[in-house]
Amino acid sequence: MSLLHLGWQWFRRRPVLIAAAGGLALGVAVLFTVLAVFNGFLGALQSSIRDFAGDVVVQVPKRSERPLADYLEPVRAVPGVASVHPRAVAFGMVGRRGARAVADLRTADLTGLVVVGIDPDEAPALGADPALFAETSEPLRPPPGDADVARAAPSPPPPLVLGRALAERLGLEVGDVLEVVGFSGGEPRRASFRLAATFATGRFDQEMDRALARRADVARLADRPRGFSDLVVRAKPGVEAAELAARIEQALASASLASHERPRVRTWRDLGGQLLRAAEDQRGLLGTVFFLIVLVAAYQLLATLLLTVTEKKRDLGVLRALGATPLRVVSFFVGLAAVVGAVGIAVGLALGAWLVHDIHRVELLLGGGKPIFLPEVYHFTEIPTDVDPASTLVLVAATFAATLLFALVPALRATRVPILRALFGR
Amino acid sequence: MTPTAPVSSVPPLVAHGLEKAYRVGRGRLPVLRGVSLVLCSGELVALMGASGSGKSTLLHLLGLMDRPDAGEVLLDGERVDRLGAGAAARVRARRIGFVFQQFQLLPELNALQNVLLPRRLALGRLWWRRRRAETAAARRLLEAVGLGERLRHRPTMLSGGEQQRVAIARALVSRPAVLLADEPTGNLDRRTGHEVLTLLLDLARAHGTAVLLATHDPAVAQACDRVLRLADGELVPPDAEVAPTP
To answer: Which residues of chain A from 13 to 32 reach within 8 Å of chain B, CB to CB?
Structure first.
């Protein structure tokens, strides 16, 4: 028999204490869910940036006439580099060929996108089929008609892989021809592509504004005669992007490049900096706001324990009469708060885990069958979640500490109840 | 049964000139006026007096649940009436047993847990090392009071007499030098009261515990070794003591 056992018995038999634990559980569950969603959102955002930019991007100036090898070799030799892929990136607008939208660039039907030209070996990292990006790949849909007509027909347009969301919006199906207008300074350049496949990443922004094509085709669109516009560098595990970027800059500085040939080295964090920082700030702000809710729940426990001191005055008197020192009474009340806190936190974590696990169902439930977080606004087709053990630990520790701290007030009051008044009302 | 404690030459409980008054409105109501007494080891003493004569107040002062305005209380020769709250609590836990008229059992704990409570409070961290032995001793005490089959029963599942038996076991579990009982049979019918009283006195004798028992009942007083009478806050001088009427 321990005093904690007595605390547990008090807890079990007093609905007001169970209600206090319930309040704590709700606060913890909400905070746990909010943190998981924001961590998931940040993770998705980071992964979105890193998928596209790798860990470090070496952006080669357009005026540089140096061959690819002059940049590729020094970067490959840098310690900590896992892989380097040359890319050609073109910014442009897309529409279905023959549609009125393409004929008139001022129409709102055109959609802006980034066409990323890659080599076949990089395709798997972006979730695409390498065969689609090989220069020798066969036409995906043979031109209609007999063999002679097919032979006489102009060669089919090069393949392009589009995000599923954008393909659906444009009403495109695999095999359809689409036209991209590239803006690389000067006159716009037009190029026809055939939709070879679509990709779905679950991230609405990627699916709406990204297209993958063969590097050589995109280089033509981007007016990059050397066939590349930047190098995407992936770091070995454990190597920080900033550290790697510094090493690459150092390696390129000693590669005897003229000033107009010197590339710009940027980390994935530089590329997505403002958005990431904004999201991180928002996570911090929301975390603080929801922790205040948890504090309110812990404060409510203070009021409940004060009530318990009044209601259980006689029992406290018995404990004191039988030899409980004031310190032991304090520790008993702190122990009681620990029981309430532990139950509240455990239930809250379980509830939060369920909410995170079934977040989509909960979202539909709250939205009356419609999603609350619109993909067009929040840039993901499903709410991303990520339970971070470190922030969960901080949440549990802070909630538990607040609970124990608030229990000190009723605990001290309990020690001041005179024994005789407690036992006999005198 | 626990063996009888060795008899010490120092009386376990001595009180000198205890005075206590309560504030009533703007005035003060004296309850005890210079009460002195000595309780010898293993002695069973009845404290009699009319309602309001100060019996309970005297027990509370002797049990360190309240402080006298004047006078002193010595337990085993050590002055204890001016101890701080923590030290007084430790003395209560180890050296004084209480039996209250209203039983004062904790409703959430069963009989065995109620009996063990003073030991848990007295032993602190040592409890975890000695809990088996202490539990065994508490079981034996409950068996001695006839509740060996009711160890896991909560107070609400026990009759008044059974609850008072649990309270007696709880008072004796620490093998205290002094047991203070405030009308322990006041809430029981005559037959049950007699049984409980007999049990209390038998066990106290067996443990060598000095008992001071406040009562209105002359029959209860008759079962004790000595009777002290309290009137208007003063003890009737020993030479004026009268034998309890049967």
So the answer is: 13
Six-digit token string for B80: 């204890």
Of B100, B108, B122, the CB nearest to A6: B108
b/e burial code for range A40-64 (CB count within 10 A of at least 16 → b): bbbebbeebbbbbbbbbbbebbeeb
Cβ neighbours around B77 below 10 Å, total: 11
Nearest by CB to residue B90, choosing from A314, A318, A323, is A323
Q: Radius of gyration (Cα) for chain A, nearest Å?
A: 32
CB atoms within 10 A of CB A17: 23
Is B121 within 8 Å of A415 when comparing Cβ atoms?
no
**Residues A68 and A35 occupy one common structural domain:** no
pLDDT at A126 over 60: yes
How many A/B residue pairs have CB atoms within 8 Å?
Answer: 72
Measured in degrees and rounded to the nearest 5, phi and psi for residue A89 equal -120, 130
Six token digits for residue A317: 């008197």
Residues of B in contact with A9 (CB under 8 A): 108-109
Tell me which residue range forms the domain holding B223.
Answer: 42-67+84-227
A192: left (phi over 0), alpha (psi -120 to 50) or beta: beta
Report the residue of chain A nearest B170, measured CA to CA: A322
Q: Does A412 touch chain B (CB under 8 A)?
A: no
Among A314, A325, A329, the residue to mutate for chain B (most B Cβ within 10 A) = A325
Which residues of chain B are within 8 Å of residue A13 when distances are taken between CB atoms?
A: 108
User: Looking at the partner chain, which of B85, B108, B118 has a beta carbon nearest the beta carbon of A322?
Assistant: B118
> What length does chain A have?
426
Task: Report yes or no on B169 lying in a domain.
Answer: yes
Residue of A nearest to B130 (CA): A1
Q: In this structure, how many other beta carbons lie within 10 angstroms of the beta carbon of residue A108? A: 6
Q: What is the pTM of this model?
A: 0.70
Q: Does A415 touch chain B (CB under 8 A)?
A: yes
Whole-number Cα distances in Å, A391 to A279, A398, B172, B230 = 16, 10, 52, 68
- Distance (Å) from the C-alpha of residue B62 to the closest C-alpha of chain A? 12
The CATH code of the domain that includes B95 is 3.40.50.300
Is position A110 within any domain?
yes
Answer yes or no: do A206 and A236 share one domain: yes
Average the pLDDT over A70-96 and give the result: 88
Residues in chain A within 8 Å Cβ distance of B56: 424
Q: Into how many domains does chain B fold?
A: 1
Cα A365 to chain center, whole Å?
A: 23
What is the spatial distance between Cα A209 and Cα A158, in angstroms, rounded to a whole number? 19
A200-244 pLDDT, tens per residue? 766 677 778 888 899 888 888 888 888 899 999 999 988 898 999
CA distances, A94 to each of A26, A418, B91 (Å): 48, 83, 89
Each residue's pLDDT tens digit, A37-81 = 888 888 887 877 777 778 899 999 888 888 888 999 999 999 999
Contact A114, A209 (CB under 8 A): yes
Phi/psi at B72 (nearest 5 deg)?
-145, 155
Predicted-complex ipTM score: 0.88
Domain total of chain A:
2
